[in-house]
Amino acid sequence: MRWENLADDDDSAGRAGAAALFAADAVTTRTFDTPEFRGITFHEIRARSIVNRVPGASRMPFEWTVNPYRGCSHACVYCFARKTHSYLDLDTGLGFDSQIVVKVNAPELLRGHLASRRWQGAHIAMGTNVDCYQRAEGRYQLMPGIIAALRDHANPFSILTKGTLILRDLELLKEAAAVTEVGISVSVGFVDRELWRTVEPGTPAPERRLDVVRTLTEHGIGCGVLMAPVIPFLGDHPDQLRATVRAIAAAGATSVTPLVLHLRPGAREWFMAWLGQHHPHLVRRYERLYAEGAYAPKWYQRRITGQVHELATEFGIGPAHRGAARRIPAPVAPAPPEPTQLTLL
After folding, report:
1. What is the pTM of this model?
2. Bridge-partner residues for 262, per DSSP?
């Protein structure tokens, strides 16, 4: 394992010569024999820096990130961040899912950074590389200190997560939202439970994530949904898209943003191996669809985006309504002989 290769920019491509994030002799490796952590190894480190600049060539709409963890027990087979584990000579497949780097001093580092005269109070994004509310956060509890530091300096920030643990920090988020701009997004690419079980085995179920959206909205914190990824040929049928957008709207989301699956190196190999095992008849179709690189063709992306935007407008969460949480009634079926409660999921 090459700790010296872990650069101070988690969102970079691991450029040669970058400064090491921490000293190799500052690593403590732990395992915990509890059901939720069985099979997972944690590498606790004291990082040298925590605020990372996003490379200029990135497609990300933000410049600075904070990532308290590296590797992710959500184990999403498509995760684009898998490649980052190779910089440590760690496996980008099962190793990414089970070898978790924990920057145990992240809150104190961030507080010091925000207090620096050089820091101008730019927006900080979290959950952009791996999920900051993954399972490890339940034990290490780094996010309360991080949010408190951002609150105390009135520094704007955003969080993207698939984790329901964010509700633990609801009061802190409300306090931060009273003094600065806070953006919360939950990732829900589909509500198909069978698809969820196979491609996102370590995540809370989609309906539980939508409960997070509902709870945040009810407490006055607007929450959007990143409908990601839309998975070609497995989660892109019009009926699947409709069911997902309907459920997102019913949860009170302020917006919905579709994002088609992209397969960067590291993630591509792992996903295609999974596809060959579970859906071998789709391998050739994927090879053709992604023949030009990591991203699906523009025509396909435009088609999915158009369909989702039409559905969002139909259900009251289209672009014209951004920032205003909406709810829709549950669909009404023909009256049965006895009262029946309908469910979306």
Report:
1. 0.86
2. 295
